[in-house]
Amino acid sequence: MNGSVNIICSGDAIHLPAVAMEEVNLSLHGANRFLERDIPLEAVEGVRHLLPLLNEKPLTFRYKGVLVVARLVNGSPRIITAWKVPPSA
Questions:
Q1: Distances (CA, A) of 52 to 7, 46, 68, 76, 80
Q2: Is residue 89 part of a domain?
Q3: Can you tell me the distance from the alpha carbon of 76 to that of 87, in angstroms, rounded to the nearest whole number?
């Protein structure tokens, strides 16, 4: 399969236990990039939940109203881009 894989997750349909919402650890560089790029927190949550599906190919998915493109780089997840998507009518 070529290109990215699309997965659509409805945030309203997902009810996660409190254990799944633990803190996200970022390196200092990662934390600075997170703030500089104004990445929605929902993007990080989505990447954490889909971590087993990530590989070297970019994965495009929607999580809680945020469209995210992420992949693995040297075994670590990397968010390529993320932006809030307006609700569909």
A1: 13, 11, 16, 11, 17
A2: no
A3: 31
pTM for this structure? 0.58
Q: Which residue reads 């633990």 in tokens? A: 22
- pLDDT surpassing 80 at residue 87: no
Helix residue ranges per DSSP H, the chain: 28-37, 41-49
Domain range enclosing 16? 5-84
Domain annotation covers residue 49: yes
Q: Give the separation between CA 59 and CA 62, rounded to whole angstroms.
A: 10
Q: How far apart are CA 20 and CA 36, in angstroms?
A: 26
